[in-house]
UniProtKB/TrEMBL annotation:
InterPro entries: HET. Residues 51-154 form the Heterokaryon incompatibility domain. PANTHER family: DOMAIN PROTEIN, PUTATIVE-RELATED (PTHR33112), HETEROKARYON INCOMPATIBILITY DOMAIN-CONTAINING PROTEIN (PTHR33112:SF16). It comes from the Eukaryota. This is Heterokaryon incompatibility protein-domain-containing protein.
Length: 285
């Protein structure tokens, strides 16, 4: 991380300290044990922050709701959190960071207004993170990723999750906990691995060269074959990528379709078509 910050011209520098999101998990080293609490930054408060990318899984997990928000700001019941979040808190602390962003805790799940505003901010949350922790090999929040023995696999549960695509594509640096090893990637050093012979295919985790029409098509292809818990999130989970395409190309993106030309209307499905969301017009995907 130090080498990246000090020597890579493509990567954010050590002095890049962005504004914090609306809530973060505070894991300050002055808190004893693995205690943590939800922190609401003051307006304009800046600090370095890590983000967690993971599969929620089908079983419920402890989240922040309107009724638990106050309690979580006092202290998070760390031992009731999914093992994946406990491991992310440990990783954040051991790397010397004070803040971690985890969607389940930092978005008030039953507050639709907060949820909508955080979905709008998702791109900047992942882009501003000093690094993301990607628990690629875990299939649910109940599984940890530190000190876990796994069989090697080139395919990881996170590969099939729709939300995870933009989270990986937007991040500047990644610590990917794959089935076989820890991979470190940044904009200058893609797919750096400690044991290259075991390196799985990491196309899904790599950072992205955003320019060009064809590349957008590749992203839609990668994205649209992935799974969403709520099909109504189809455009929401692509919003960060759409926003980046708008910035880079100068073209507006409407319902997931940029104003590049008519090539985008030659749609066909490689997988069985799913029910179309009523929120998008027929020419969207
Ligand atoms: Zn770098």
């Amino acid at each position: 991380l130090r080498t990246c910050e000090e020597t890579h011209p493509e990567c954010p520098k050590n002095n890049f300290t962005p504004e914090l999101p609306s809530y973060v998990v505070g894991v300050s080293p002055d808190l004893p044990g693995i205690t943590a609490r939800l922190h609401k930054p003051a307006a304009g408060e800046k600090a370095k922050c890590l983000c967690l990318i993971y599969c929620w899984g089908t079983k419920g997990q402890l989240t922040t709701t309107k009724s638990t928000l106050g309690v979580h700001m006092e202290a998070l019941p760390v031992h009731q959190l999914g093992l994946i979040i406990q491991d992310a808190i440990t990783t954040t602390r051991r790397l010397g960071f004070r803040y971690l962003w985890v969607d389940a805790l930092c978005i008030t799940q039953n507050n639709e207004v907060h949820k909508a505003s955080e979905i709008k901010s998702m791109a900047s949350i992942y882009q501003n993170a000093t690094a993301v922790i990607s628990a690629a090999a875990a299939s649910a929040s109940s599984e940890g990723f530190l000190a876990v023995e796994r069989h090697f696999s080139a395919n990881h549960p996170l590969d099939s999750r729709a939300w995870a695509l933009q989270e990986h594509k937007l991040a500047n640096r990644k610590f990917v906990f794959s089935s076989a090893e820890l991979l470190v990637e940044c904009r200058a050093a893609p797919r750096y691995s400690s044991r290259r012979s075991l390196r799985p295919s990491l196309l899904s985790y790599s950072s992205y060269n955003w320019s060009g029409n064809r590349r957008w098509m590749d992203l839609v292809q990668m994205y649209s074959s992935r799974a969403l818990t709520d099909p109504e999130d189809r455009l929401n989970a692509f919003e960060g990528i759409a926003g980046e395409i708008e910035i880079r190309s100068g073209k507006k993106v409407r319902y997931g379709v940029p104003q590049f030309g008519c090539e985008v209307f030659s749609w066909f499905t490689a997988v069985p078509a799913q029910a179309r969301s009523a929120r998008a017009p027929s020419w969207s995907w």
